């Protein structure tokens, strides 16, 4: 159970802050929802409280864990399949997992691949999605602005 003000991560969407808990009627059924404000894109997301475990909602990482994420970003590219389809599926599974360390791997690997060979449209979209998820969590974990985190990422991935 989360409370108003808690910083949480919604896999495939990113990190945000629970700003309200509301009862809403959807399709004739009343349910309780967390209302999460996302720091990037000024979005609000409604998360059914009874689905929290199945969707993988979790707390934002600590500043120490954020340092581990940064070490992953600075690391060497992992071995990835040369087959575009296999690589795409493996990366999508990592993003869907909600594990920030795996998302950081995807950002690092696709950024390095982009510098070397360029990316397909699908992989570029995946990189953008993974970056947004990563940035949203680092913004909250490190109490930095989106611009500060973007500059930090750019310095690692050049």
Written overview of the protein:
The model has no long low-confidence stretch (mean pLDDT 92). This protein has 2 domains: 7-59, Thrombin, subunit H (Beta Barrel); 63-156, CarD-like, C-terminal domain (Methane Monooxygenase Hydroxylase, Chain G, domain 1). The longest helix has 22 residues, at 121-142. The protein is an alpha+beta fold and 158 residues long. The protein has helices at residues 52-55, 63-74, 84-97, 100-116, 121-142, 146-156, and strands at 7-10, 14-26, 29-37, 44-48, 58-59. It is built from 6 helices and 5 strands; from the N terminus they run E-E-E-E-H-E-H-H-H-H-H. Helix content is 51%, strand content 21%. It starts with 6 loop residues before the first strand and ends with a helix.
Total DSSP E strands: 5
- Uncertain regions: pLDDT < 50 for 5+ in a row? none
Q: Give me the number of helical elements.
A: 6
> Approximately what portion of the residues adopt beta-strand conformation?
15-25%
How many domains? The number is 2
Tell me the span between the first and last alpha carbons. 40 Å
What is the assigned CATH homologous superfamily of the largest domain?
CarD-like, C-terminal domain
Write down the overall mean pLDDT.
92
Alpha-beta content class: alpha+beta
Please summarize what this structure is.
With 158 residues, the chain is α+β, with helices and mostly antiparallel strands.
Salient structural properties:
Thrombin, subunit H, 5 strands, 5-stranded antiparallel beta sheet, alpha+beta, Methane Monooxygenase Hydroxylase, Chain G, domain 1, 6 helices, 158 residues, 2 domains, single chain
